[in-house]
């Protein structure tokens, strides 16, 4: 379905609210605001792999009246709800303490760009809270609607499916909430409940099942992965004259490197991938890639805690098999949320790994002593600080760069200054977007949490408005023509977003710029950059 | 509509208080109900907190609002991205005492024209009204609450007299006007009007959002009437309250007007209602996992009590079994050669 609504048409919305009570406004499914359901065979495969966590695989369509829910769906959801209240203090507390002050309301990119009041984080959470009150509190049972309670009806579940797949789990609302209520946490719970009755979306489940089987979301098999790397090495040799080493699945190295498979699969991520290869070759890092753990990202995070754990477990399993000392992770957003907030708890402690120490500078990464996994920009910033890299930033002089903080490194980790330090070392023209739209207040690309699919383009462009707007601001003010980011989903979602809201701005990974500025031993005079475009002054 | 329901409920409560006093049920309203309300409050509050605490915190999920602890030469944002217990306590203190997250608040504004899409923009203005009035409301309420302890203590501690002195600094009128009385009404009125007048906030508001505000306003107003207009015999009231707090309630005290019993009854309703309402954010804010945990997951191991050891990755062995031939053909290292694998298969 080609989606071709013009920006001026998309902007015909306001922040008005309906006259009716929100409980009486039904969910409206229209092209561009929902994602295709999971294919039965994919759901069945995952159900088998997880011993029954993805039941009721079936063909169903959100626009149909009948969603073919299992007979006892109410009991399933009720029990699932109770189970999660008992497992997560966050969920229980967040169900109880919201005062509906509305501080979060206009912090959501989907609300800012669409005006649907149910995209206010507070109301999105109320979709669940109203059921919580109706099913689990005395007041709700007695007073019903007077206590803000609802009965569990099919319409409620439909509403959940619509709106909990209109949340990218970016946590911007959580930053502004006086109690730190985290809509991401609530969305995760809601999606888990939906999985219990067989409601899910294919764009998340197919990558997740691919990742389980082939090691990466794209379903790239080992030999094909290796071929792609080979191809990149040839490109690098053409451009630089240097034959970089590319160790794969090799035992006995010091470091395992894992990056999202989006980097090997699609432009502009591929140039970032080449950047990693060149950097590691240049510093002589003793490391290996892995085809078995060829995915940093984890679509389990957008699915359920069990699947997240299962997919993430590969990282440590492979590190142990290959006998490395520690892991370096590439430029990926939600991968780092999983690594920073979940990995060690789910699949640790990783006793077979050591505290990372940079073999080039001797810097000890005590902040990663437990997980033994460091971010590539932490690693590279340290190299630069110690002057271990020969750099020629003028090769990036044709770029006027701004930087987009990805939600997860910003609000679930706090990785803000390292990438900026790296960028400022490799390019001379760097400009920040307005401060309300960057760092911890950064706006989502509107394709996070597994919603970066084409049939969802209207919501992506709506949700992309705040970021697109900030981008256009620096484009008009500073002639910015390049948006740097450290996230593979960003590299997939931001090109169409920029094209829509700020045409003329391109997207790059940080290590693509690093590699273009990197002066390598034995290189030929560089005439083109990694994209095979002539370098400034070389025309 | 939700606001009207709440207003109506509070009116009914006031009438109940009036009717009870008129019918001479002073023992019920002066002794039984207060004891009952306080009992409900403590039992309910503790039960709620225990209920929350019973659920574990499986993962450390602090919302990071600043630069993490990284290299020595990168400035660590200790308050918004705490790494240690001390820093986390400082973050929580700012959150609880200064409403730090609310201080960040921004308001979205659209401007430009929609005629030509690209000229339509959004901007973000600082928006500190809610933060300011919320602080005013909460702190006034706290001071008013603390001031009431002069009725339960004998002799009255010095700090209470000091507090009263500063609260009445303006020396307006007789009895001296307490500033916090005014601020409490002002703060609650702002919160109420904001809720009733802003369409988006009205849209999300439930009966349970208006009710506490009306109730607190009626408590404040009945208290103010008692002090400044109704002229209640304060010594008689103190006799009653001291009796309550020493668990030896006086049988019948003369000279306490109806307005006092209405005030007391509304307070009792507020206290009893507290544990079952959104007012529990008082307790919940301390237990919010996105604020009360340090961001030290990569440095230290944390345990999840219900972590399932049976959830395992799709194993490398299975992966290699599926793709071995292709791996060998591509020249990738394998754990088992083709022959060895064939032998295993045959066995």
UniProtKB/TrEMBL annotation, chain A:
Which GO MF term does the entry hold, naming one?
A: metal ion binding
Q: Which Gene3D superfamilies does the UniProt entry name for this protein?
A: Alpha-helical ferredoxin
- Ranges for domain 4Fe-4S ferredoxin-type come to 89-118, 158-187
What InterPro entries does the database record attribute to this sequence? 4Fe4S_Fe-S-bd (IPR017896), 4Fe4S_Fe_S_CS (IPR017900), Helical_ferredxn (IPR009051)
UniProtKB keywords:
4Fe-4S, Electron transport, Iron, Iron-sulfur, Metal-binding, Transport
A Pfam family matched in the record: Fer4_8
So which residues are the signal peptide here?
none
PROSITE patterns the UniProt entry points to: 4FE4S_FER_1, 4FE4S_FER_2
Q: Which segments of the protein form a coiled coil according to its record?
A: none
The name this protein goes by in its record: Reductase, iron-sulfur binding subunit
Q: Which organism is it from?
A: Desulfovibrio ferrophilus
UniProtKB/TrEMBL annotation, chain B:
Transmembrane segments annotated in the record for this chain: 33-53, 129-149, 169-193, 205-230, 250-274
Which UniProt keywords are given for this protein, alphabetically ordered?
Answer: Cell membrane, Electron transport, Membrane, Oxidoreductase, Transmembrane, Transmembrane helix, Transport
Q: Which GO terms describe its cellular component?
A: plasma membrane
Q: Annotated Gene Ontology MF terms? A: electron transfer activity; heme binding; nitrate reductase activity
Looking at the Swiss-Prot or TrEMBL record, what is one Pfam family this protein matches? Nitrate_red_gam
Localization annotation: Cell membrane
Classify the protein's membrane topology as the record does. Multi-pass membrane protein
Q: Gene3D superfamilies given for it? A: Transmembrane di-heme cytochromes, Chain C
Query: Which GO biological process entries does UniProt record here?
Result: anaerobic electron transport chain
Per UniProt, residues of the NarG-like domain are: 127-282
Tell me what this protein is called. Answer: Nitrate reductase subunit gamma
Q: What is the lineage of its organism?
A: Bacteria, Pseudomonadati, Thermodesulfobacteriota, Desulfovibrionia, Desulfovibrionales
């Amino acid at each position: 379905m080609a989606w071709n609504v013009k920006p001026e048409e998309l902007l015909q919305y306001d922040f008005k609210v309906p006259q009716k009570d929100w409980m009486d406004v039904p969910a409206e499914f229209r092209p561009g605001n929902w994602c295709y359901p999971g294919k039965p065979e994919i759901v069945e495969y995952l159900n088998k792999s997880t011993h029954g966590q993805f039941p009721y695989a079936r063909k169903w369509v959100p626009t149909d009246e009948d969603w073919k829910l299992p007979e006892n769906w109410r009991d399933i959801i009720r029990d699932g709800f109770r189970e999660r209240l008992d497992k997560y203090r966050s969920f229980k507390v967040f169900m109880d303490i919201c005062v509906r002050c509305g501080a979060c309301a206009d912090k959501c990119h989907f609300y800012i760009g669409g005006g649907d009041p149910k995209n206010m984080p507070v109301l999105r959470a109320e979709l669940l809270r109203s059921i919580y009150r109706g099913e689990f509190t005395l007041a709700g049972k007695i007073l019903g609607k007077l206590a803000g309670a609802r009965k569990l009806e099919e319409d409620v579940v439909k509403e959940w499916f619509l709106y909990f797949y209109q949340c990218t789990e970016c946590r911007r609302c959580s930053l502004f909430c006086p109690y730190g209520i985290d809509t991401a946490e609530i969305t995760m719970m809601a999606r888990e409940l939906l999985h219990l009755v067989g409601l899910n979306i294919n764009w998340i489940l197919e990558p997740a099942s691919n990742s389980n089987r082939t090691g990466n979301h794209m379903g790239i098999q080992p030999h094909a992965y290796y071929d792609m790397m080979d191809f990149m090495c040839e490109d690098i040799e053409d451009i630089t004259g240097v034959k970089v080493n590319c160790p794969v699945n090799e035992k006995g190295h010091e470091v395992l490197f894992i990056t999202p498979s989006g980097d090997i699969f699609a432009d502009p991520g591929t140039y970032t991938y080449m950047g990693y290869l060149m950097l590691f070759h240049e510093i002589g890092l003793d490391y290996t890639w892995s085809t078995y753990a060829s995915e940093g990202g984890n679509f389990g995070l957008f699915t359920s805690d069990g699947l997240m754990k299962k997919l993430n477990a590969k990282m440590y399993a492979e590190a142990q098999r290959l006998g490395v000392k520690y892991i370096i992770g590439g430029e990926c957003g939600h991968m780092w949320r999983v690594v920073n907030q979940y990995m060690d708890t789910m699949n640790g402690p990783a006793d077979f790994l050591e505290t990372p120490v940079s073999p080039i500078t001797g810097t000890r990464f005590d902040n990663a002593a437990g997980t033994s996994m460091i971010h590539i920009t932490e690693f590279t910033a340290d190299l630069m600080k110690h002057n271990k890299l020969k750099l020629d930033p003028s090769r990036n002089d044709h770029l006027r760069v701004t930087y987009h903080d990805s939600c997860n490194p910003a609000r679930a980790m706090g990785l803000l200054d390292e990438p900026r330090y790296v960028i400022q070392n490799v390019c001379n023209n760097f400009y920040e977007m307005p401060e309300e739209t960057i760092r911890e207040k950064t706006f989502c690309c509107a394709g996070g949490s597994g919603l970066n699919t084409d049939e969802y383009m209207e919501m992506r462009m709506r949700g992309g408005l705040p970021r697109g707007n900030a981008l256009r601001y620096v484009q008009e003010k500073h002639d910015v023509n390049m948006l740097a980011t450290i996230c593979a989903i960003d590299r997939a979602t931001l090109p169409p977003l920029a094209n829509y809201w700020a045409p003329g701005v391109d997207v790059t990974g940080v290590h693509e710029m690093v590699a273009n500025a990197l002066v390598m031993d034995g290189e030929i005079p560089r005439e083109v950059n990694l994209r095979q475009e002539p370098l400034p002054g070389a025309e | 509509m939700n606001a009207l329901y709440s207003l109506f409920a509070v009116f009914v409560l006031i009438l109940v208080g009036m009717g009870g006093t008129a019918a001479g049920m002073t023992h019920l309203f002066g002794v039984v109900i207060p004891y009952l309300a306080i009992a409900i409050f403590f039992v309910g509050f503790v039960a709620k907190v225990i209920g929350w605490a019973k659920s574990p915190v499986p993962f450390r999920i602090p919302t990071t609002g600043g630069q993490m602890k990284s290299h020595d030469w990168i400035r660590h944002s200790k308050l918004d991205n705490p790494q240690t217990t001390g820093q986390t306590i400082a973050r929580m203190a700012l959150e609880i005492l200064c409403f730090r997250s609310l201080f960040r608040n921004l308001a979205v504004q659209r401007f430009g024209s929609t005629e030509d899409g690209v000229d339509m923009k959004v901007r973000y203005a600082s928006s500190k009204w809610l933060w300011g009035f919320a602080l005013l409301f909460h702190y006034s309420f706290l001071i008013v609450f603390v001031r009431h302890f002069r009725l339960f203590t004998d002799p009255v501690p010095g700090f209470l007299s000091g507090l009263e002195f500063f609260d009445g600094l303006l020396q307006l009128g007789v009895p001296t006007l307490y500033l916090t009385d005014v601020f409490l009404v002002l703060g609650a009125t702002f919160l109420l009007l904001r809720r009733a007048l802003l369409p988006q906030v009205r849209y999300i508001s439930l009966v349970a959002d208006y009710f506490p505000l009306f109730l607190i306003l009626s408590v404040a107003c009945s208290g103010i009437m008692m002090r400044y207009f109704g002229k209640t015999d304060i010594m008689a009231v103190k006799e009653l309250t001291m009796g309550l707090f020493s668990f030896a309630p006086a049988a019948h005290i003369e000279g306490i007007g109806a307005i006092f019993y209405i005030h007391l009854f509304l307070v009792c309703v507020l206290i009893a209602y507290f544990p079952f309402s959104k007012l529990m954010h008082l307790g919940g804010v301390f237990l919010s996992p996105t604020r009360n945990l340090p961001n030290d997951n990569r440095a230290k191991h944390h345990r999840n009590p219900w972590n399932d050891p049976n959830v395992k990755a799709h194993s490398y062995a299975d992966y290699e079994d599926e793709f071995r031939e292709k791996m060998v053909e591509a020249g990738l290292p394998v754990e088992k050669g083709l022959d060895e694998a064939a032998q295993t298969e045959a066995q």
